[in-house]
């Protein structure tokens, strides 16, 4: 309820886009607070707000979004050395606030992200949520960040330059599935694939059989679960929550569009998983060479 009530209030005050952005920012605030000092957490939320504002300003400009994606990847390479996934939501924020479904002016994006981040941090402090720090070795963090940044920047540039509808879902899949810690990669890849398929089914059923207000409730609940499971590292549940949220908000009241988006989502997820597996193999090769050299 502590998460749902603020999102519902924002939805009434600012609309669906504001609610989605606010909810994502709450997730950011809740992710950074348990493993950061207050000033550090505030700085990370401000960085998220800056990226979201710039993404809203850039819109669907290919080079600008590609640059922002790469910058966000560099930032999470830096922060992963503190704890894995600390800023993993920032490239997602860039995608959703830029070419994605969140339609806000740059200043509104900044304000809603700052507000959501603050509320998320307060909820974390008040309810005493705990999360262990999982630091990533420096070289591993940089290899992961640079590889993911280059790949996702390229995907975003390609999808926007060639006007590929919802091509950004490929990048979202890579970002969510390819974790910086090597021992988590198989779990996240499997969870991402299974969660997306199940989430697509949930979204399709909601669009087909529920009135618009009912589908919105399902989407808001999915946003709640996305924020909640982002803190705990349940990757299947994260994908299971993210997919219906995106599909429902993008196809409200349009059954035919719901079918189209579901098919697109599944296809792009499979492509993203393949890309993530290839990058994971490259990273594993680098790690093996480094281990062999140290022996």
From TrEMBL:
GO cellular component, one term: membrane
Transmembrane segments: 41-71, 83-100, 106-129, 141-160, 194-227, 233-253, 265-286
Topology class, membrane: Multi-pass membrane protein
Domain Integral membrane bound transporter: 156-279
Keywords: Membrane, Transmembrane, Transmembrane helix
Predominant localisation class: membrane
Pfam hit, one: FUSC_2
Protein name: Integral membrane bound transporter domain-containing protein
Phylogenetic lineage: Bacteria, Bacillati, Actinomycetota, Actinomycetes, Micrococcales
């Amino acid at each position: 309820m502590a998460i749902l009530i603020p999102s519902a209030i924002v939805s009434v005050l600012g609309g669906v886009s504001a609610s989605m952005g606010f909810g994502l920012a709450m997730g950011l605030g809740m992710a950074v607070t348990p493993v950061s000092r207050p000033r550090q957490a505030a700085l990370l939320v401000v960085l998220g707000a800056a990226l979201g504002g710039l993404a809203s300003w850039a819109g669907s400009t290919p080079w600008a979004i590609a640059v922002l994606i790469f910058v966000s990847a560099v930032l999470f390479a830096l922060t992963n050395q503190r704890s894995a996934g600390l800023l993993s939501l920032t490239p997602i924020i860039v995608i959703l606030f830029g070419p994605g479904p969140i339609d806000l002016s740059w200043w509104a994006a900044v304000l809603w992200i700052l507000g959501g981040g603050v509320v998320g941090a307060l909820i974390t402090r008040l309810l005493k949520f705990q999360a262990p720090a999982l630091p990533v070795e420096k070289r591993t963090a940089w290899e992961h960040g640079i590889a993911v940044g280059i790949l996702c920047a390229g995907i975003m540039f390609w999808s926007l330059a060639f006007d590929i509808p919802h091509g950004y879902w490929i990048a979202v899949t890579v970002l969510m599935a390819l974790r910086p810690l090597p021992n988590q990669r198989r779990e996240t890849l499997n969870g991402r694939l299974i969660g997306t398929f199940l989430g697509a089914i949930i979204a399709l059923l909601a669009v087909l059989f529920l009135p618009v207000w009912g589908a919105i409730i399902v989407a808001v609940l999915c946003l709640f679960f996305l924020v909640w499971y982002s803190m705990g590292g349940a990757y299947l549940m994260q994908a299971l929550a993210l997919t219906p949220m995106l599909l429902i908000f993008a196809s409200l009241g349009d059954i035919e569009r719901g079918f189209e988006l579901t098919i697109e989502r599944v296809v792009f997820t499979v492509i993203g998983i393949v890309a993530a597996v290839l990058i994971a193999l490259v990273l594993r090769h680098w790690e093996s060479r480094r281990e062999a050299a140290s022996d």
